[in-house]
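Quick one:
INPUT:
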């Protein structure tokens, strides 16, 4: 008897999940989205085994549900459909913030196992037309289990991650995840948009070097998504921003006082840390 994976939200990540999970064990992959153009594209390009717009019509039969919505959309979906999940089902999400989402998941019945997840992959594009099955190859899959999460469901997620091509599964706490993402992703997006706020931006068009293009690549972001990500992870992000501002102030003060020796020391310290970070060796984000 076939089992069912329902993926709610067929954007870039949800569509890529559906494509990457095709052929996984004995599961049928069902895509759900409220957008008719998205559903039409999914049908025409066989993104999932089947698609529909009514989540309520399929949740009751779903053994696994992956929520690939914007953060607030996940929170709202959990509240609205809390009593419609199949008892014994595994529900997981792909959101870049874990504490707020896992707090919201407490509305679910005890018979439904929610595990917070974060596939560490993506592009600067959005929409199902940019989804592709190889999205997750050699990426990390972060998993935040609850105390009552079953070993069977954790093992199932590990097998799904392997099928999709992730290099490993990293288990951590929601708080540790949010602190990590605030530093490695969210603050980088704030740096990018802040650089683009400079009055010189358009005067420099055509003269950008690769360092400028690399720094600002993610600035053309999905405003609605990143507003929610920043807001829901504000405590962790503010801590990182405070550290960044202190580091920038230190460089500014060193430049202002004209102390080339001190400036050279600071640059050498920062450069050495980057080189150490880039050395081959054990990956600090490997599986626990």
């Amino acid at each position: 008897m076939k089992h069912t994976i329902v993926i709610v939200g067929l954007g870039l990540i949800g569509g890529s999940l559906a494509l990457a999970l095709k052929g996984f064990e004995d599961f049928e992959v069902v895509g759900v989205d409220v957008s008719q153009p998205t559903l039409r594209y999914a049908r025409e390009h066989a993104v999932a085994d089947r698609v529909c717009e009514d989540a309520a019509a399929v949740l009751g039969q779903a053994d696994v549900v992956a929520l690939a919505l914007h953060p607030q959309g996940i929170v709202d979906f959990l509240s609205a459909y809390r009593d419609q999940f199949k008892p014994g089902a595994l529900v997981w999400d792909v959101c870049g913030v874990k504490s707020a989402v896992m707090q919201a998941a407490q509305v679910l019945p005890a018979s439904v196992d929610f595990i917070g997840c974060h596939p560490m992959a993506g592009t600067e594009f959005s929409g199902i037309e940019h989804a592709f099955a190889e999205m997750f190859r050699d990426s990390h899959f972060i998993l935040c289990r609850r105390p009552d999460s079953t070993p069977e469901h954790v093992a199932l997620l590990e097998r799904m991650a392997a099928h999709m091509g992730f290099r490993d599964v990293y288990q951590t706490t929601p708080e540790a995840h949010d602190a990590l993402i605030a530093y490695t992703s969210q603050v980088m997006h704030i740096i990018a948009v802040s650089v683009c706020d400079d009055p010189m931006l358009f005067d420099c068009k055509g003269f950008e070097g690769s360092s400028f293009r690399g720094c600002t690549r993610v600035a053309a972001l999905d405003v609605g998504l990143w507003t929610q990500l920043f807001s829901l992870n504000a405590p962790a992000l503010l801590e990182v921003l405070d550290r960044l501002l202190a580091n920038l102030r230190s460089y500014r003060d060193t430049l202002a006082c004209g102390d080339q020796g001190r400036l050279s020391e600071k640059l050498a310290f920062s450069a050495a840390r980057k080189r150490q970070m880039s050395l081959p060796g054990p990956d600090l984000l490997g599986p626990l």
